[in-house]
Design brief:
With 317 residues, the protein is mainly α. The chain has helices at 14-34, 39-52, 63-84, 87-93, 95-119, 124-135, 139-151, 160-191, 195-220, 229-249, 253-273, 288-314. The chain is 76% helix and 0% strand.
């Protein structure tokens, strides 16, 4: 489907561009692994090559599609993070977990914001926007690395993988929310926006995402309805995507990300305790969350990872 017209073609258009990026990212990942490098490097490089070789191979990829692919990939990662998060281990760490979740990214954002005011003569809101952009952790890199270490048993007894997974996931929510708040301040200052709503948008964003994700997790906990693994995986995936894209549609980007993370955490908790309604639950199970996470991992490896890193690479010219 071409953004420049209604015609559907094989040799051009958005569908062709996405298919080409996906296929070449798979090839690039395999080449990188063969060279003993992380697969994402090959995916990024092949995406970059597609953008810059003659022939305008991926020029028909709509910017909206590119943004949606990145959002979908983030949603999958956050759902996986929530499903694999050991909530009890995270709680046992206490205040240190909260500090590691918020302080590093916030400190970096403030430092970058202040320096951007001095170096680039930016206003404070725009400087903070830049700070939150640069300060955001990539959960697609950090979280997957922690999953691998956790599967090998490294640091599990001290809760280190759970702490880093939670910190990386919440850091992204903080970065998205902070960016949205200061972007609203920057645009509101120049367009006469509602400052009261600008101030309240960030907390509202996070709270709404937390509530929506928890309600979704409660729905997933009704395992009488989702009595097979593929049903549980399907409902989690569909709810995560729904929350992410409905949030984006109404300007609650941070809320969509928060909902995806809260969905995974709450579904894991409800499955392991047989709640929220015991009559509609098949009983406690510690295997449901791992099974769903495994299915999402397959979707990530086959579809979302090559698309995400291929699209990111193809953005460079």
């Amino acid at each position: 489907l071409s953004p420049n017209g209604p015609a559907t073609t094989v040799s051009g258009g958005g569908v062709w561009a996405v298919t080409l990026i996906w296929a070449c990212a798979h090839i690039g990942g395999a080449v990188a692994v063969g060279c003993k490098l992380p697969s994402l490097i090959g995916m990024l490089v092949f995406g970059l090559v597609l953008r810059n070789v003659p022939g305008n191979l991926v020029d028909d990829l709509p910017e909206r599609w590119s943004s949606d692919i990145r959002a979908a990939g983030l949603s999958v990662i956050l759902m996986r993070s929530g499903l694999e998060l050991d909530l009890d281990a995270f709680k046992s760490i206490g205040w240190m977990a909260s500090r590691l979740t918020v302080m590093p990214g916030l400190t970096e954002a403030i430092a970058v914001g202040l320096f951007s005011m001095l170096v680039f003569n930016m206003g404070f809101p725009m400087g903070m926007c830049l700070g939150f952009i640069l300060g955001a952790v990539s959960p697609a890199v950090v979280v997957l690395g922690m999953f691998e270490l956790q599967s090998r048993g490294y640091g599990v007894t001290k809760g280190i993988p759970s702490l880093v997974v939670a910190a990386a996931s919440f850091d992204d929510v903080v970065a998205i929310t902070g960016y949205t708040i200061f972007k609203s301040f920057a645009l509101g200052a120049s367009h006469g926006g509602n400052m009261a709503w600008t101030v309240m948008h960030g907390p509202t964003d996070v709270v709404m995402g937390l509530v929506a994700g928890s309600c979704g997790g409660a729905l997933c906990g009704l395992t009488v309805l989702w009595d097979t693994r593929w049903k549980r995986s399907s409902i989690v995936f569909m709810l995560g995507m729904f929350f992410m894209f409905i949030g984006r549609s109404y300007g609650f980007n941070g809320g969509g990300a928060m909902a995806s993370l809260a969905l995974g955490i709450s579904a894991n908790k409800f499955w392991s305790t047989g709640k929220p309604i015991r009559k509609l639950s098949t009983g406690p199970s510690f295997d449901h969350a791992h099974g769903v996470e495994t299915d999402l991992a397959v979707l990530w490896r086959v579809g979302f990872q090559p698309l995400l890193f291929g699209v990111i690479g193809s953005a460079g010219e």
